[in-house]
Amino acid sequence: MNRVVIASNNPGKLLELAALLKPLGIQAAPQSDFAVTEADEPHFTFIENALAKARHAANISGLPALADDSGLCVPALFGEPGVHSAYYAGRDGNREERDARNNAKLVEQLRAAADRSAFYYCALVLVRHPDDPTPIVADAAWQGEIVLEARGRNGFGYDPYFQVRGARLTAAEMPAEEKNRVSHRGQALAALAAKLAAAP
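^ that's the sequence the OP posted. Answer follows.
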């Protein structure tokens, strides 16, 4: 397998996944190259949504497909934003406007919280074809806490407010190469690569 379609239109995810797949000798093609529309994500779990997106992209593109469903989970908010991370504060506007509203809502809800611990979670699903009965699934979590003031200009989404556990940096203050190595997505892809190498 030397080429997969990435089942996402999120430019931040596309850049990260392409960078992470390159050392494996896998070329990542965005689903927009094949006119793949956004898949429905009606499920309550990241893994179910990732599987739905991967099957949808593989069906339309005719290629193996890799889907990522990920988000920020905050125990003090009973796991929210969770699978609703991208549209936590609504669907109006472009991605930058939604990110700004999402972050504003998150900070406001946690401003008086004693516990602002949080974790990013990523589920990756790779299907070889749309009806693949044995998709390769990997997941990982990245622990941290929410800070009330944005720091850093890298990354996307909640990164400026996510301070990594054991570091004084937010995800948006980390160089891209370091973030790709230690993030939820980087850890999940490393696990997926190991499973792919061991697959028959």
